Fold:
Amino acid sequence: MQPVETPSLVAASGDTAPPPFSVAEIFTQIRLTSLLALLLVIAGAVYLYGVHRLRKRGDHWPRGRTIAFLVGGLGSIAAVTVTGLEAYDTSLLSVHMVQHMVLSMVGPIFLALGAPVTLALRTLPAGNRKVLLSVLHSRVARVLTFPLVAFGIFVANPFVLYFTGLYRATLEHAWLHEFIHVHFIVTGCLFFWPLLGLDPLPNRWPYPARALLMVLSVPFHTVLGLTIMQSRTLLGGDWYPSLRLAWSDPWKDQVVAGGVLWAGGEIVSVTMLGILVLQWIKQSEREAKRIDRALDRAEAEEERRAGAAPAGADQAAATKITEPTPAVRPQPDAR
Structure:
């Protein structure tokens, strides 16, 4: 008896099986019709407009921030959502894991380095700026951006996604699949933006606490990656075997996927930790320079006061010498 494919599997794989995954396929299967692609274009255009407004009025905006936001942030997200990687993310778990790492870690880090909130506050009209500030400092924003809350959401989400029926549902429903992509980006931003601290967000912790939180995130990626590599159950159930791809073994691909999550998480976490250390060093240097300037001003003021006192005493002495001594008229002897 010939097995019958479910409608969801047919929709995912199409009438024919996709060609073997290769680097060439990444560049030949570009898709610009998704909602996320539209959002990326809008975000890039709005950011560039803000930079243009600043420069038009003579204000400076660091070029590195623009490059970080457009190339590192939006560019990395586009690289895994509108290219051939997106075309294979429901066929290969390993490709999905690459997407996961970029959307939840790489993209949000570079978006935060672009400081878009600061740019918005410098370019928006006064009324809109007040609205944005009220949102940033609202109770909801304070709770969601509190480092421990954001950390809990960030590390718990993958376990909920991959070890429940939610992941299988994302493979069957395109709208849920797209939503999960956006969800990865949002949770990554909630975690990394307060840690980097370039934008005026609430709950800005000192650098030692930020670095410690980053270190604590490393074991979770290791545990999750190893668990997936050693699992005796395929993620997504029979989804990948039902695709019957002659060029892919779902079990071997799942091992690769776990390795991507494990190694990728550690690499990105260590890189992020390095960024925090560099920021910490620069802040310490700025603080040291500020203290030196304050000491220099205090020393100069003290020398000025000390120099003014002797000058005044010498002037008084000179005046006393040059002024004529008043004549003293003799008084008659008292009888």
